[in-house]
Amino acid sequence: MTLRLTQEQIERYSRQIMIPDLGGKGQIRLRQGSVLVVGAGGLGSPATFYLVAAGIGHLGIVDSDRVELSNLQRQILHATPDLGREKVESAKEKLRRLNPEVEISTYAVRLDDKNARQILSGYDFIIDGSDNFETKFLVNDVAVNLGKAFSHAGIVRFQGQTMTVLPGQSACYRCVFREPPPPGEILNCQQAGVLGALAGTIASIQATEAIKFLIGMDEELLTDRLLIYDAKTIKFRTVEVRRNPQCVACGEASDPGVSSTGKLNEGKGNL
Ligand code: ZN
Question: How many domains does the chain have?
Fold first, then answer.
């Protein structure tokens, strides 16, 4: 890959190249960087739009679903004519139109303990835009095991949360939430509803974190803090979180042979 920006790239990205913390050097780093977005839905839509617009080198999108009418209220990658199409195909078409320079890989599969390791390992940063606890814990455990930085997020009704994890350095999702809640205890957005614009706010933060990570702003990431956003009152609150030495994903006892991630390696799953 060329280490020089073309005249066209300088023009396309001029408004962010002007930012002193980013500059031409940051733009080249973005071109060399890759991000995997899990879910081409409410969170994945704005996140992928901003990442592709910003000129990352390679985007991966995982989603096994097809576009449904009830998705369109928030999943802004997809439009009415896309009903019934694979979400990854619909996503790729829109993103290509926005910025044909970005390499886009699609995975029309549900992320599971058999494919997660292989898919995640090809990327520098992971954005979890999934809508269920099983996938959130899976992304955490596999990313931590691979040492891949990632952004967690969850949204429901008027409330969203997000945090960034640098494995081995900052608290992971499992340090904060030890295990998935019993089925049915916490409503997901399919059961409880979610505001589309809230997804945009949280996903924009996730894309911002990915961009900051790729350009080397590790010190400024949303690590060891869980950001909670209440869209009803427009209040942001951060809760400090700490690494748990007993965490089964990233703690002292997380030897690959005994940890949850170890079990994942054996293909048994841990959830
Ligand atoms: Zn942990």
Answer: 1
Residue-level pLDDT at 271: 26
Question: 108: CA distance to ligand 1 center in Å?
Answer: 29
State the Cα–Cα distance between residues 71 and 94, nearest whole angstrom.
16
Residue 42 · residue 74 · CB < 8 Å: yes
CB-CB contact of 155 with 194 (8 Å): yes
Q: What is the H or E stretch that residue 153 is in?
A: strand 149-156
pTM passes above 0.90: yes
Q: Is there a domain that residue 267 lies in?
A: no
> What is the CA(53)–ligand 1 centre distance, in A?
32
Report how far ligand 1's centroid is from the alpha carbon of 178 (Å): 8
Q: Domain range holding 188? A: 20-240
Structure tokens at 111: 């992320």
**CATH code for the domain of 222:** 3.40.50.720
6-61 pLDDT tens trace? 999 999 999 999 999 999 999 999 999 999 999 999 999 999 999 999 999 999 99
Average pLDDT, the chain: 92
Between the CA of 131 and the centroid of ligand 1 the distance, in Å, is 21
| 251 assigned to some structural domain | no
Q: Is residue 222 part of a domain?
A: yes
What is the 197 CA–ligand 1 centroid distance (Å)? 30
What is the distance in A from the centroid of ligand 1 to the CA of 247?
5
Give the distance (Å) from ligand 1 centre to CA of residue 248: 7
